[in-house]
Amino acid sequence: MKDAVRIQREDFSQDEEVGALRTGSKRMGGIATFTGCARDFSEGREVTQISFDAYGNMALAEMRKLRVEAIAKFELLDARIVHRVGVVGAGEQIVFIAAGAAHRAPALQACHWLIDELKQRVPIWKKEITAQGDEWVTPHP
Amino acid sequence: MKDAVRIQREDFSQDEEVGALRTGSKRMGGIATFTGCARDFSEGREVTQISFDAYGNMALAEMRKLRVEAIAKFELLDARIVHRVGVVGAGEQIVFIAAGAAHRAPALQACHWLIDELKQRVPIWKKEITAQGDEWVTPHP
Amino acid sequence: MIKVLFFGPVAERVGASEVQVPFRTGILLQEVRAQLQESHPAAFEIVCFTAVNGEHALDMSLPLADHSEVVFMSKFSGG
Amino acid sequence: MIKVLFFGPVAERVGASEVQVPFRTGILLQEVRAQLQESHPAAFEIVCFTAVNGEHALDMSLPLADHSEVVFMSKFSGG
Lengths: 141, 141, 79, 79
Prior knowledge:
The complex is a heterotetramer, with two copies of chain A and two copies of chain C.
Chain A: E1 5-8, H1 14-23, E2 30-37, E3 41-42, E4 45-54, H2 56-74, E5 78-84, E6 86-89, E7 93-101, H3 104-121, E8 124-130, E9 133-136
Parallel strand pairs in A: 1-5
Antiparallel strand pairs in A: 2-7, 3-4, 4-6, 4-8, 5-7, 8-9
Helix pairs in contact in A: 2-3
Chain C: E1 2-5, H1 8-14, E2 18-21, H2 29-39, H3 41-45, E3 49-52, E4 55-56, E5 69-73
């Protein structure tokens, strides 16, 4: 089975990730997921691709910490985090978060917390590639 | 492509549902999903299966209304709702909700709202099948 | 005829998923309910919602048309 | 030697993803930073975070060991 926390160039499958999440426990009543996708439009410009750069070791370590923190904070039965790097086309998947708990509220809350924290804490940078040129994205706090 | 709102006996695929959701728009930056599963344990008893009864026509109509309401309320680009009926084994999937929006917060909020409202408003009933006998579930408000 | 449907725990307590109530001009929803409640008191203990032709009915003084579909439902537990 | 890494927009402004800074006993993180900032002021305008050996470093007076890995990073924009 693939690691619960990964940084990879290739796309991922929700079925595979949710399947892996569910193998951990039959007491999982609720599974929440979040998938971030590359939008084809950003601040008035048409985006054809997004390119990602990551401080790989630290990014993976931070994602692993996030998973452990979320499991403790929301009493999850399991959680998974996958982030792609390299070049991703418009409309393609970028990031995947899954949280499984006995009940729905903690699963949904954990999923929201994880994607918010990931954006704050994981050293990954995106560059939008447009017909008018490339631009590194400046996050809006 | 399958309907965005369905009641069915057979299992569903997250990949297929999220794929169908994403065909609608490349401006979808965030997709949140919720999957409800049959837990093998409930109020101290081991549950082997869950059996569902539904007022099919009204349940489908209510689920369609929920989808339309959620799309308007959270400015979603699309949403899907699938609920299984018949007999579902412990650990199997029961219900699936997906919400896609330009940004992550409305997608996640809509997903939470949809599953909460579905439980309140859709005429479906579950019976837990245990070694000690069967019991219709009484919802805790 | 008025078709009355039961589902889940209500159907179990009634011992049937469908009964027919004879139609007469001006028959009210509350009369159908009262008649069935008398013969199936345990079932109606858990009835919380009523639907007429697939729509929630809150007003029990609603007059019913012939061939109406009436459903007496307990609290939902789907999802 | 101290290995200094740059990623994303900082790497673009520096024009490199890695530079080496000679190690001397007692060298502080802030000295490495000051030296690089002088040669790459535009890059350091957007630096918000510093990591030493894969951990966030908040104290710029941290003395560095030989072969340390230092990273000056702009705000993250993953996800």
